[in-house]
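Homework-ish question, so no full write-ups if that breaks the rules, but can someone show me the predicted structure for this set?
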Amino acid sequence: MLEARDICVTLGRKQVLEGACLRALAGRMTVIVGPNGSGKTTLLRAITGDLPYSGTVTLDGQDMRHLPGPALAERRAVLPQASQLAFPFTVHEVVRLGMGGRIALRPDAAHLPARALERVGLSGYGARFFQELSGGEQARAQLARVLLQVWHPVQDGVPRWLFLDEPVAALDIGHQLQVMQLARDFARAGGGVVAVMHDLNLTAMFADQVVLMLEGRVLAHGPVAEVLTDQHLSRAYGCRLRVSRPPVQGATYILPQATEMA
Amino acid sequence: MVALTWTRGADSTASGDRSARARVTLLALVAFVVLASLASLGTGAAGVSLPQVLGKWLAGEGLTLREHVVLFDIRLPRLLTGMLVGASLAVSGAVMQGLFRNPLADPGIVGVGAGAGLGAVLAIVLGAFLPPAILAVAGMHLVPLAAFVGGWVTTLILYRVSTRAGRTSVATMLLAGIALGALSGALTGILVYIADDQQLRDLTFWGLGSLAGASWAKLAAAAPIMVLALVAAPLLARALNGLALGEGAAAHLGIAVQRMKSLAILTVAGATGAAVAVSGGIGFIGIVVPHLLRLVMGPDHRFLLPAAALLGAGLLLLADIIARLIIAPAELPIGIVTAVLGGPVFLWILLRRRGIVDM
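A: Not a homework solution, just the prediction itself:
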């Protein structure tokens, strides 16, 4: 279990997080949503150790700050929002960078980057230069690298974690669904997933737990149906939003038009 | 130059895995260094020919004193010095480019060479004023050590100035390098001004960048630092690969970023400082060698760093042979040869990839 308690982060003079709490379970997909500037990416970056914070983040009871880097890298992988790359690496070489620790010693290690690329729909892209890919393709290549880092969702009975910062922001709808499905498969196989998302409908479709943030605090936390409500969303996003449910499946979707129609 | 024209890799390159190609390149480079070494041993103003000497040696005849001196006291230390200096310059270029995440970072261009030079000149001019007890301990290691410290301090300042929140600005790095280089140059100028005649002679020959003064004693003084830096460099390979993704991503891969950065800066300073101390300012090896190698085998530092050491060593030996032959029996300072060959290549890199400077 991943638990973040009383996370405060100050960037410059502005306090971006004011005591945010989050609890995420392995085997579940936890999605952080909220308006621009609500602190969702900051919360993720505090949890992944990218930002100095006060408060505690524990992974299965161990303080993340006390886990040494290599051990932490075996337990969790992080997909950043924007990726940069110096030097002309091929896509294969970029994906291979994710392969460290024990997995690099496997006899089939040489084939794993190609398999990771296949999972994100980039089969045959290995020999291309990373910088020559489109933004969406680069994002998926980075996802393949991150997947390779935690290739088995559970290793020796210990769940591993994926932290994804807006994993579908640069993608078309087909690839959005593919990537969300990948993340959900990872969780179904026993791993933990924490993702920051903008798209409320994809969140409603794929999340097990939703964390709704507003002004550096957690406004609501729980299953989709409890968090994504008219009241919560309208307050968080500062506009009237109506949650609708198609009668057949009972799924949740959010259409801004619905308020006009009502 | 087999390695440079060899572009079609084994089957696995189709998958984007260039490691097989890198291994073949490394083998070709080993052969290149061996050939360059033989050529270097066989070339010189004294007219001692390597095949003749080898023939004599195989036939069991003794060498004349002259042949012995030329080969073992002049050419062999020069060969080893050239190899170590070339390898050090190329590797420190590759490490620095990895650290700054930019193919234009080079100790010579961004003022680290000048900083190391200042350290060396300080040691030459002011070393005599040190208490005799300290001089006795430091001895001949004083100049390389001072150059190492000079290079280290410059690299530290440069990195602090040009890196903010984990991001290195290329423009700031180049401009800060110019400022640091100018400052080191000015201080060096003051020292030259107060130097006596004997020191001036030493400084002039040293500053031109030459292997002509190579001797076993000088080699013994500088070699430990260079060897240490060359041995440390491969330890950085995985970290430098990770750093290409940015510092945050590198840390998420389990790389101890701060420690690796400190080690990289020490390596650059050690390799550059010792090389500058022993041979003066030899430019462009550090930028041209890694760039050519990235074109051939890709930027994976696990292969790039050893390959840079080999190609740097071989190229410097070639440049030294040219320096010895072109106006024989006189000798051109090798720094002039590498600048004439390297300057245009540097411009070519700039023109080809203008985008990286505008970052």
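Now go work out the reasoning yourself. Hint: The interface with chain B takes residues 48-50, 69-74, 76-78, 80, 83-94, 96-98, 100-101, 110, 113-114, 125-128, 149 of chain A (CB under 8 Å).
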